[in-house]
């Protein structure tokens, strides 16, 4: 009886270890191919955070969001849309201020100091 309990525990630990390892080592989600959970204008997106940061954060946490607006700043691998949304790209993007743009990215948070919504792993939608 004691051997069966020990064998059962070893089996449970092995299964837990297997699934835990696969979860931790899973490759990151390819946002450019993922379906958007939300499509919204940059101004409306930022407005939701101005009204209730907590509610908006819960709504968008780890969601893929498509945002459209006007580029107001560019810097190496990131752009700012309508002075409120910062999008990080893996590579340098060839955009300039005033460009109308539509991007898809992963919501990663809200910067209270600069009052900016942050998206990462962004890609440009044509």
CATH fold group: OB fold (Dihydrolipoamide Acetyltransferase, E2P)
Runs with pLDDT <50, length 5+?
Answer: none
Give the helix proportion (percent range).
25-40%
Name of the CATH first level: Mainly Beta
Overall form: elongated
Would you kindly provide a written description of the structure presented here, covering whatever features stand out?
The structure is a single chain. The protein has helices at residues 2-24, 42-51, 53-60; strands at residues 38-41, 64-75, 78-81, 85-88, 100-111, 116-124. Helix 2 crosses helix 3 (53-60). The chain has one domain: OB fold (Dihydrolipoamide Acetyltransferase, E2P) (Beta Barrel). The chain starts with a helix and ends with a strand. The chain is elongated and about 75 Å long. It has three helices and six strands. A hairpin with a 4-residue loop joins strand 5 (100-111) and strand 6. The chain has a five-stranded mixed β-barrel with strand order 2-3-4-6-5. The mean pLDDT is 90. The longest helix is centred in the N-terminal third of the chain and has 23 residues, at 2-24. It is α/β, with parallel strands linked by helices and 126 residues long.
